[in-house]
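REQUEST FORM: STRUCTURE PREDICTION
Request ID: SP-0412
Submitted by: Lab K.M.
Chain count: 1
Length (residues): 454
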Amino acid sequence: MSTEDAIGLPFSLPPMTIDRMEMALDEPRYMVTLIGQSRRMIISPKLADLLRELKQDKSLDEIARSLSESWGKPIGSDDLRFIVEQQMIPRGLAYPRGEAPADARTANRSIQQPKSPILLRMLQGRFRWRLLNPRTVRKLCSPLAVFYEPLSVALALLLIVASRYLLYKDYDSHFFNQVVGRSTPTEYLISLGLLIGVVLFHEFGHAAAQIRFGLRTGPIGFQLYHYIPAFFADVSNSWKLKPRQRIAVDIGGIYFQSMMASIFYLIYLKTDFVPLLAAVIASDTLCVISINPFLRFDGYWLLTDALAVPNLREQAERQFAGLLRRLMGRPPKHDLAAVTRTRGALMVAYTIARNAFWLLLCFLIIRRASHIYASALTLMKNFFALIRRGIEFGEWALLLSSIIRMTLFVLLLLTMISLIFSVALRVIGLTRKVFSKLVLRQATAPAIPNAAQE
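STATUS: Completed
RESULT:
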């Protein structure tokens, strides 16, 4: 599809679909899907209107007249050309004629490697690798969509609640610590393998929910998030759904993970096989971490869809900043999302709680960092000693488990550095903004006349 401006440079549009999103905002939002590129982005209503006009193969002069009538204010072809060149082309929504848009292969590479500089990615600890393509994911997860039928959900929830009651009714932290932390090398490897299977099944839960609601599935991959190893599933298609359905997609991972862990626990009750119990306890711990709304895991997207506010973190920060400016008698600096008073209050509370969480987390990390890093050298020596012992005596379970434990410990050290660096970047950014405002205010302040000179 191409559009040619009579007085400017021609350009073309890539194949795309434009869908309205179900959001709790007075001004609607639209999701643009670039077909064949695995890319989606949220756009404003006016940009959606412009894209629809461009897809009809009109000139910019014709579009300008049409949009001037619908928007109720005069729009010129130069204004539209500026939007195309400055907003659409950099975002991949248009491209100069003669240049091919990004193909699916290029888009897939963008999923695996973020576009941020390698040094920044290393400091932030964010990397992604694709493991299963959408077609494979659909084949594996289509039979699992049956678990979203009402009867299946009721039986699964009954199983989850009953098994967790049996597991935690007589909670013994000493026993749990022994199960998780004092297993033999063979037991450790088995429990780790079971845990990896459970966590991968978590991602199948997201994909199966998409299939249940008639959506195409995205790829599944492996990532390091602040050097925390985790799987991920591309569920960006779920923006086409209503908020309640999106919530089902968000919670589907924990639902599947808890269901699989419950089955493992029932098998443990019959066999007393300790690695099964270790995998269940570790899985439940990961579910608690995943539901945290202050990290970009399931909890964040669940809260985003529950409030029906896109880009929750950014929108909530703007609401909080606008509240502070109103308290100081100043108008908000940015246009705030038009939400109900209750949603606005929840967004402000979320910003306060999120910042408090990160500050507390950094405080705890700094407080424990000296102890952890002081013992790091000793622990690394112990790991190397165990690895050497495994090689010398042919104890391959000891060798492999020691390598894995050492790798996870190194990732823990890197996670602490990455989290502190992320908070430091944010503090530096805020400090620079405040300093810039003070300098600008002093530079534009009126001069005070000197009484002696007068």
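NOTES: The first strand starts at residue 2 and ends at 3.
Reviewed by: T.R.
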